[in-house]
Amino acid sequence: MSQLKKLLQIAWLYLYTTYKDRSTLLWGLALPLIFTTVLGVGMQGFASSDEPPTWQLAVVNGDAGDTGAQLIAALDAHPSLAAYAAPASEAAQQLADGDIAAVLTLPAELSENLLAGEHTQLLFETNVSEPRAAQVVEQAVLAALYEVSASVEIANTSLRVAERLELFALDGAPGEGEYLQDGLAAARQAQEDQPISLQTSAVSRLEEQQDVPIGFSQASPGNMVIFSMFFIVYGASSILLEREQGTLRRLLTMPVSKLSILGGKLLGVFIAGVTQISLLVIVGQVAFNVPWGQSPAALAAMIVAFAFCITSMGMLLAALVRTYAQIDAMSMMLILPLAGLGGAMWPIEIVPDFMQKIATYLPTGWAMRGFQDIIIRGFGLAEVLPAAGVLVLFGVVFLALGVWRFKYE
Amino acid sequence: MKALQIAIKDTLTRFRDWKALAGMLAAPLIISALIGLAFGDLGGDEAPIENIPVVLVNLDEGELGQAYEEVLTSPDLSNLIALESMQDPEAAKARIEAGELRAVIVVPAGFSETVIPDAEGNRGQASVELYTDPAAEISPVIVRSIVERITAAINTTLLAGQVAGNQAAGYAPLLGPAMAQLGAAIQAELQSDSLNLEEPLLDLNVVSTGETGESVDPFAFFIPGMAVFFLMFSMFEGSRSILQEERHWTLQRLMTTPTPTWEIILGKMGGTFLTGLLQFTILMVSSTYLFGVDWGTSIIGLVVLVVLTVFAASGLGAMLTAFSRNENQAGVVGSAVSLVFGALGGSFFPTDGLTGIINIASKLTVNRWAMDGFLALTIQRQGLAGIQTPILVLASIGIVTFVLAILAFQKRFVK
Amino acid sequence: MTEMILQANNLHKQYDKVHAVQGISFDIQQGEIFSLLGPNGAGKTTTISMLSCLLSPTEGDALIDGHSVRTQANAVKQVIGVVPQEIALYPDLTARENLRFWGGMYNLSGARLKERVEETLEIAGLSDRANEKVETYSGGMKRRINIAVGLLHEPKVLFMDEPTVGIDPQSRRRILDTVLELNQRGLTVLYTTHYMEEAAELSRRIGIVDHGKLIALGTQDELTKLVGESDTVRIGISGVSDTQALLAALGALNGVHHAGLEEDELVLQATNANARLSQIIGAISAGGGQVKSIKVAEPNLEAVFLHLTGRALRD
Q1: Per the CATH hierarchy, to which homologous superfamily does domain C229-298 belong?
Q2: Is it the case that residue B164 has pLDDT exceeding 50?
């Protein structure tokens, strides 16, 4: 019983010294929030998610026929595009100045080629300093071109069917040109009423589709995982500092068991870690609108499991390095790769298969998965238990190895 | 002259310390390699995203469901999509939740029957359902655009038959008995090769101004990003060594030798600068060999930019150290500034998406100007003239911080 | 006539509130070892810092080899060698690298630098381990290299600030021998210490410093004469109820100049103490006390300090 009391006293001492130090606030809260904000906005790409931006597209219309004008109208109708006709020199200047996202040039033979069913390539110029805008505009232009191409395909098909029926050999039949123009008009009209539509929905248990800014559903848990690793690993390795200062030796000469010393220290680190993660979660919910609060039980399970896992990892690290000074170099080399491989720095889905496999062997991979399952899929306690369980398992192994290998002297 | 001796001594000491080397060289290279692996550009130019796990639940008994399946399993898509078939939509959706699938495509029962016109030319409307993984951002978009493409092609085919039928029917009296062959003619035409659904008649020839047209190498962005990020750390650490020398009394001992104080301070700052220059150069050279980074076409521009980046970073490190209360505070401030600058200044992601106050904050960092300069050299392949603004800003930061640092250190150490 | 290599004249150093040095003056003759003796915090290091141009005096000046520490710092620095109390060396560099670097700072270069590095390594007795990093050295070895750095440019006067603090007796002996040997070769040394025995062994003349003031200055003989012929008697006692009365009684005894109490030890200054012990013990018994130990010491610097300040030298 008295050992337990001593353990708690040691834990309390750690918490007291940690929270008395103002740099705790900086590392534990201020820096992760700055990173979350900046990376969240950066990954999202846009300053505001409410209103999709409108990109300016200049069209140099050299087309002798009327396809060019139709195309411009179709492009301008796109929600993210403002398309307008402009002379070549003016458009080039605007592009160079970065005023517009892209320039589309329509050749003189556009209408003619199109009706003849010949492929035509249109020059599409973008400015490299605006790669994101260029991509959006390119997709929109391609979609509009597909519509126009399809209407021509439809009219041409209709024309060939009439040819098969030898319509044009008959007296009183319309000319082929006239038939094609009629077909084109009919095709455009028919395109208004497509037989097959595509219905897309995301699989999520979230009751209402919340407006989670896309960047933040990655940045909020990602930065939380990265910074809590730094925070907790440094905390746990402070036991090395105690060894170097001689306070550990002094403790060992007193009637305190080794279990109480390590246990107390780690308990303090664990509590500080849980507190820090919880704070980041709260700020993520309030400031960035990340739906952390869907299932408090699931969230609590994940936070506790993750904090335990990382505290144990810190203990293992403290057992493996010789001096406190080495922690600096080691933690950089350990935590940043762990974060990157586990998907805390960028979305795990963008990396190749074998890298995604690696993530399933890392605590950071499971942590990101569990946390994102809560905020994106709306998982409850039962569904996150596997991820939390894996983290606890990692923690138990790390802790056992760390306590076994730790040198008190 | 003695300043140079002090600078060389400091540089030598730093490059002998394996812990310092780990932070200065190993960490940025490891992280860059990791980023390279993540973005799949180490082996060549394969697509960064491949084998997206997708399930098709085809409940349709007609030919259109079959068509979806055929296209999705075609050799063209076999790298991009790993398709599996299932019969139960709910079971498939559960596999999305389990993180095993990125998307589920459901073609409902009676689909073909609904949308293919009957003998009277009447048809209904139907939907293909696409369920995506909300935890993924990019692969659902890819799957969606593929399904959209297939759907558009089928729609075009259906509409072609519809328009051909209606248009010909308009001339029914004229065609007379030939009308009986209309259905067969449409069928034959739709199955012939002349209906082109693969390549639209109009296509784009995409040209990016200021670029050779190749895709942007992620290393061209991340290597300078990481190099500048870790440079900031080592510049703060280097500057801190002057306070460390004060603690060890070697600074006081230096001041008892016939060496002017300004020369000692200059030597210490010069040592940090030299260390940074070496660190950056080694990172550049090794990344060129390891990752094949292309540093652009302007060697003069590159040299000037590197020198001024290190100058500004070491000046800033020295200034903040000079105004810190003690070594400990200098350490905290240094790490915090390095991290925040890294995040704001575009060491981790391109800054072109930033707007408003964050963009302004970004422009207050050394990292931002350095990155603007490097990207102008490497990606836009500009010369010295193209990086005038970053050069001027970095030089100004360097000069102001250096002067302030020397003055503050003088005041601090001459008692 | 002996030449004065150093003349300190009314040196003052005042920080915001602390008056660390309050008017210290002394001369050092060419070729002597001069010690500043005093407890920690007496102002010895501040004085040496002013003499080495690290701190500029608030008032007063010092001439070293004819150069003012106020106005001719660079000329002063050329003729002095400084051995600070701290191990002011670069632990990551080897001993030889340290010496080469510091030699450069003293304007040595080329063959001359090389020669002096080897010579000072020889003096430190570390020629065979010169290529090992200083951080791997023992405390005593670090102290020796610390001294060697101060000798590189063959200074006219060497300032040594507590060079034996915190090392084992063997290393201390070695350092004292080195100082004596260097002095025999003609080097003038200013030595500060709070160890009375070191000052006594090394130096001809000694200045005693306390609370920022030089309270006595002279040869060892001159200083001990200050306490007269009196011996120091230390008596461990117990059972005394009224110590003030006992001290008064002892002070009234014939030949006892001073009676004081340090913890449970009586400290007396008495002429020809051995002959008066029975009287003294009698007085203690009369006061109800019991004598547990008696120690009689001939006059020494410790006694001088006690005589001058009423306190023991060691804190």
Answers
A1: MTH889-like domain (3.30.70.1340)
A2: yes
